[in-house]
Amino acid sequence: MSESEIDALVFDVLGTLVDEPAGLRAGMRALAPSLDAPGIERLLSLWQQHIEGEQRRVLDGARPYLASDALDREAARLVADAAGVDDPAAVAAMALSGRRLPPWPDTVAGLARLAERFPLIGLSNASRTALLGLNAHAGLRWHQALSAEDARTYKPDPAVYRLAVAVSGRPPERLLMVAAHAWDLRAAQSLGLRTAYVSRPVGDPPTSADRFDLYADDLADLADQLDKADGLSR
Questions:
Q1: What b-and-e string marks burial along 55-85, b requiring 16 or more CB atoms within 10 Å of the CB?
Q2: 138-168: pLDDT as tens digits
């Protein structure tokens, strides 16, 4: 695959470009400073299980669509109850911790390098408001940032990926979906998008049955591979 075959890059955000668990842990430490590391991990697991479970219920039609802000508020209340915290201000701050996620060390420079050659589209399950705060906090550079809220569903629903296809104005096969989650790439692949897996400590690794177009250690490696592929095609 060469650069000339790709018109735009579409990036997953949570986990791929920002370290979501690290940001949530920081919020939980602020919520309950006396908790030890195992206690924080239990709260993190509770948060993640709630968000994933409720998004799945939306996808399955068992619950009407709610934007990620509402799910974060629900998760924050669950975490606060489990930690024995009943301060409304502390719970509200915890609910906003998903907007204060640190970028991975290679993210900002990697996006800047790739943005010199490709339009960059962010495609996230985060709400429009959450995505704005998240992008600003982490210093993410986009030409367009799209929220699944615009499709009133969540990835991996095909409607979310169609947002990026529609905005790009290009056929799916001219877009490269970049993610640290194999499930995300499979869904994009099913609509005809090209795919690039980027390894992250918190991602969903590919299985032996997956066949993605590119496999990269980080964004610098992804840019190098696109450079090399383009050079070979000339």
A1: beebeeeeeeebbbbebbbbbbbbbbeebeb
A2: 999 899 999 999 999 999 999 999 999 999 9
